[in-house]
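Input (Nodulation protein D):
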Amino acid sequence: MQLPDMNLLVALDALLDEGSVVGAARRMNLSPAAMSRTLTRIRDALGDPVLVRAGRGLVPTPKALELRSQVRDVVEQAALVFRSADKVDLGSLQRRFNVRANDFFVGVYGGRLIDTLERQAPLCELRFVPEGDGDDEALREGRIDLRISNTRPLTPEVKVQNLFTTAFVGLVREGHPLLDEDITAERFAAFPHISMSRRGIARGPIDAALAEQGLERRVPLIAPSFHAAMFMLPDSDLILPVPQETLLSVSRLGLRLRSFVLPISLPTLVLTQAWHPRYDKDPAHKWFRETLRTSCQATWQEAQPTSS
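Output:
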């Protein structure tokens, strides 16, 4: 019995993942011409075209789709034969971890994470990149290692793990007139608000909750960053809804701001970390994911309100 050429399986995995001869060639450090010849060999071996032209791109055939997960498993298992799946030398590990997250996560959770990396893997780098459209493609293409978000990835192959849950509270300047009386939905809606949106969107779940009570708020300011918006509050009567862990930053920085429970019902958010399956068994990436999750849990616990 003739054994299959493992190089063809690795190439097939790259082709199915990238959906492009050029992309697969780049990943395998081959020329496009060499990868094109390899695709021809794969087609001959499988008796199937594998990838066919559709407009300017390539799409997988039904047989290719059927084989995708099986090929990935075989390639990953073969890779484990040549490396330890459980051990990584953190002292000599040199790697940059790219994490896509918003400023709330960076400001509240990033400090403990980088401190842990500095102590355990001093030669590694942590690079936070801003949220943006096409996050799933960035994971697929290997431009980011992790995506931290409260939305689920659109691509089904992406791995997802829950990190923590959070709820929103209100934040205003010290001495704000909203604090003079009981905070009702009507009084909450009567003051101007800051809307947080990297896309510049003024309306969201808060507006939907107010609308259920026949109320509407005014949003004169839209900002892309929670922490930048916090520094606007002392000079205005603006209200800023923030994830409750942001209060940890308020306390640490000694900001003269006051928080309050929102008088409307909003859903609890679940923050997750997502990564591409190509990194699932990678020992350094696995260590980083576990370290990030442990770090988040410690900071989350520290940020929880204590009962008096």
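The first strand starts at residue 51 and ends at 54.
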